[in-house]
Amino acid sequence: MEGILNAQKSDLERVIGVNLVGGFLGAKHAARVMVPRGPGCKLFTASACTSIAGMSTHSYASSKHAVVGLAKNLAAELGLLGINVCPRSNLSCNQLSTNIGQELADFTPKVEAILNEVGNLKGTVLKASDVARAAHFLASDEATYVSGLNLGVDGRYSVVNPSIVVAVRSSLLHA
């Protein structure tokens, strides 16, 4: 993972352009369709890096924090029109290895084992279907009074293991 000393402004602008500006424009155009139709839900994809420091590049973390802020602000505005807006963050072994750095991509099975060992939900590793069910819930009628919540679908690693990245890196470096 690239540190601040070697960070490039162009990388920040590119990541902000995709994650934040893309989300902003998507929300704007979705709202144009959703507002006249009435109640609905707009979901944003955030990241576990909004809860756990050190998981990603500074550009990516900054952009995802901005996405959460945008979603919360839109929740205040669009909630008055019956539209729920929620950011959703998740942590999986594939995302973790990707966010730490591409050099760890081959270590996914080891990262999964570490997450299982130090995780709060023993014997459980996040799957794509878990993330899909959370998104489905937020978009469903069962969540009509849920808005502005950054739902962390991360097995609560962000609460019980704030130094998970350090543990994974240390384990992989000493393997």
Automatic annotation (TrEMBL):
The keyword Ribonucleoprotein does not apply. The keyword Translocase does not apply. It comes from the Eukaryota. Keywords: Oxidoreductase. InterPro entries: NAD(P)-bd_dom_sf, Sc_DH/Rdtase_CS, SDR_fam. It holds the Pfam family adh_short_C2. PANTHER family: 3-OXOACYL-(ACYL-CARRIER-PROTEIN) REDUCTASE (AFU_ORTHOLOGUE AFUA_6G11210), TROPINONE REDUCTASE-LIKE 2. Belongs to the short-chain dehydrogenases/reductases (SDR) family. This is Momilactone A synthase. It comes from Vitis vinifera.
